[in-house]
Amino acid sequence: MSEKQRFAFRNRHRKTFMTSAQTAGTLDASNSAPIAAEPVTLPPLQGTALAMLTVATALATFMEVLDTTIANVAVPTISGSMGVSANEGTSIISSYSLAAAIAVPLTGWLSRRVGEVRLLILSVLLFTLFSVLCGFATNYNMLVFFRLMQGLVSGPMVPLGQSIMMNSYPPHKRGMAMAFWAMTVVIAPVVGPVMGGYITENFSWPWIFYINVPIGIFCAYSIKTLLKGRDTPTSSDPIDVIGLVFLVLGVGSLQYMLEHANDLGWFQSKEVVTLTVMAVVGLTFLAIWEWYDKHPVVDLKLIKNRNFTVGTILQTVGFTIFFGNMVVMPLWLQTVLGYDSFHSGLAVAPVAMFSIFFSPVIGMNMHKVDLRWLVLTGFGLFAFGAWYSSLLSPQSTIGEIMWGRFLFGLGIPFFFIPLSGIVMQGMEGEELTAAAGFSNFLRTLGGAIGTAVFVTVWSRRTSFHHARLTEDMYPGNPMYDQFMNQLASSGMTDSARYSTLNGMISGQAASMATLDILYLSAGLFVMLMFCVFFAKPVKGAVATGGH
After folding, report:
1. Residue 41: pLDDT above 60?
2. CB neighbours (10 Å) of residue 482?
3. Structural element, H or E, at residue 396
4. Residue pLDDT, tens place only, 437-469
5. Is it the case that residue 33 has pLDDT exceeding 80?
């Protein structure tokens, strides 16, 4: 063997030995036996760093959820400035919600490819960029496109905000983390219409998007600084193309159908029927494919966890009813009582007040009680609040209306926070992220279903009551004759009298329909109370794992 060959041989063996030593770990001092190296687990954040991270992740979540409702009240103004009809203007809302609904289930797969921290920072920065571009849009098509992109990049923000916040807290304080996160999710949709109405009336509509800029920059910088070196490990999981196609087809069709079904007349419209068939086919094939795929876009095997399944169903149905109420009440206030968008939003804003004060209290004491009893209390308070609001009338003052909404909001911290604890029971690491994405997707979908179904029920019950009330309005009826004579004595023409009468009947019919919605909501919440105990007993914030 030549000298050159012997040198190469020794060099190869030296590299092999060095590589083996690195992978084997450290040597035990007593016997020099190799021990496998343990992955470095960084301690949870504490003090100021933890507080700053809480603020940053909460604001990121708040910003994303806020944009689902802040543009709603500005649609007429935006449509007018862009030269399109109000019906066309609703695409500003639907494009965002449609893209977000598709993107949320992808959070688990994206976080595995990119890393949770890096993905959240990227989502926040892109969300901020597209918010600016929405404000800069010079025509309607540009605005819809940028809203679509804004919704698409926003998908991971809410589930990752939940996952990162929980993983950054010590195990015994994760109830508090969940409380802070839940508070932002519930408050943001309520604040959105109020803030959007105020900004639109006092400034200009682009500012409903520009307000995201300082928030986004602060959140991205804070998360990057505080979680440096704490990102989750990545893996090169292949993209499930077929599952992604079924996801886009099923969820996209369902979301678009829910957004427009009421305007199109539901199943009397061929477009709604077609979209429904596409949604059913897409979601059915998605479920079958994802169950057997090795790298699913949506991990459906999570439903094997009893508490995840029960908690997610209760959360979805609860939010369906909750958001249905939150949409119908402003409609009644605006159509019957004559409130503008700002004051109608202000009247229902007290719903969120109890969340601000009681969420931390619930979070700190979750470990002391069975979470099922807290959820039971939440549903009971929702039912009581809905029943109390049914006592309102068109003559009610804004103070009485606000008090009714205040009582309704009593149930929020008892409902959402402990129910999230039940959903996340025993979840760790990547499983926690996947569960957060899945449950948040269904929660968002529940809100969309609640909005569509409750508005339809309210509209049809209004028509029903209008028809019933009109049956008694005929010449010869003493009440009818007396009322019409009073109007005639004031100098009204026949057409003016009939218009006034129809307006009064329409207002009364809408009020009666609102009462029907409140009674229905109270009954459904009572039914959910009996479903809570299908879940196993849970105490505390039981999700584990960490960055």
Report:
1. no
2. 9
3. none
4. 788 778 878 877 887 788 888 888 888 888 887
5. no
Task: Tell me which residue range forms the domain holding 121.
Answer: 41-237
Total domains in the fold of the chain = 2
What's the confidence (pLDDT) of residue 75? 72
Radius of gyration of the chain (CA): 27
* Residue 275 within any structural domain of the chain: no
Instruction: Say how far apart CA 399 and CA 402 lie, in whole Å.
Output: 5
Which residues fall within 8 angstroms of residue 385, CB to CB, at 6 or more apart? 404, 405, 407, 408, 409, 410, 411
DSSP letter, residue 105: G
- Report the CATH number at residue 343: 1.20.1250.20
Helix runs in 293-370, H state only: 306-335, 341-348, 353-365
pTM attached to this predicted model: 0.75
Q: Looking at 188, 204, 237, which one is the last position of a domain?
A: 237
Largest pairwise CA distance in the chain? 124
Q: Which of 447, 471, 462, 436 is nearest to 517 (CA)?
A: 462
Q: Are residues 114 and 198 in the same domain?
A: yes
42 C-beta neighbours (distance < 10 Å), count: 11
Going by pLDDT thresholds of 50, 70 and 90, the confidence category of residue 44 is low
State whether 190 and 306 are in the same domain.
no
**Intra-chain end-to-end CA distance of the chain, in Å:** 52
